[in-house]
Amino acid sequence: MKDYRIKITIRNERLLHPIEKMGYKSVAEFCKDKNLNISRVYKILNGQCPPIDKNNNLKPYVIELLGILNINIDDAFTKRQLNGFKRTSFTIKASEAHLLKLTDPIKNQEQKLIEQQVNDSLSKVLKKHLHKRERIIIKMIFGLGTSKTYTYTEIAELFVISIPRASQIGKRAIKKLKNHNVLKSLTEAGAREYSS
């Protein structure tokens, strides 16, 4: 079960920014002060209504809006925005952890970079000390390079081997990794949590 329901409303930032830059805290306040039809302005901002008519001419109230904002059509709309939006909002469901990741994209990118570097270092260490099948199984057991960890039952099914055989390969690989020199290499790769 997800923790949050998030509704994303799509609005034209090219129009909103000049309104906010003029000192207005809301579109309603702007429309009231400039004597504009709030419903029409909202429909243009939300893309519910295209700013051009069937003959590709700007609608009169859009010309008035752009005049007040002192911007031209190219600065106000992308080619897609000129046709209106097919969807003006999206709803997604998210867990709390996912929501925290969404709200901090810079940290997400840094985290991804660090994870990639650690995964690359781990892959080198594993390649040096384990056979191919052992490497794959260790990565599956600990979820290295993937968002999922696998049980020996799942590994056995994927490799078409018995569960005891999958367990034997996994335990043999872990034993190899517990060698002092290998542990040191793993620790240097940033994988302390995998070395115990």
How does this model look, in words?
The chain is mainly alpha-helical. It has two domains: 4-90; 105-194, Arc Repressor Mutant, subunit A (Orthogonal Bundle), CATH 1.10.10.10. Helices cover 60% and strands 6% of the residues. Strands 1-2 form a two-stranded antiparallel sheet. Helix 9 crosses helix 11 (163-177) and helix 10 (152-159) crosses helix 11. The radius of gyration is 28 Å and the shape is elongated. The protein starts with a strand and ends in an 8-residue tail after the last helix. The relative contact order is 0.10.
Question: What secondary-structure arrangement, pairings included, does this model have?
Answer:
Blueprint: E1 4-9, H1 13-21, H2 27-34, H3 38-45, H4 60-69, H5 73-76, H6 79-82, E2 89-94, H7 96-102, H8 105-129, H9 132-142, H10 152-159, H11 163-177, H12 180-188
Helix pairs in contact: 9-11, 10-11
Q: How would you sum up this structure in a few lines?
A:
60% of the residues lie in helices and 6% in strands. By secondary structure, the protein is mainly alpha-helical.
CATH superfamily of the largest domain: Winged helix-like DNA-binding domain superfamily/Winged helix DNA-binding domain
Helix content: 55-70%
Overall form: elongated
Order of helices and strands: EHHHHHHEHHHHHH
N-to-C span? 32 Å
**Lateral strand order in the biggest sheet:** 1-2
The CATH architecture of the largest domain would be: Orthogonal Bundle
Question: How many structurally independent domains?
Answer: 2
What are the main properties of this structure?
single chain, 196 residues, mainly alpha, Arc Repressor Mutant, subunit A, two-stranded antiparallel ribbon, 2 strands, 60% helix, disordered C terminus
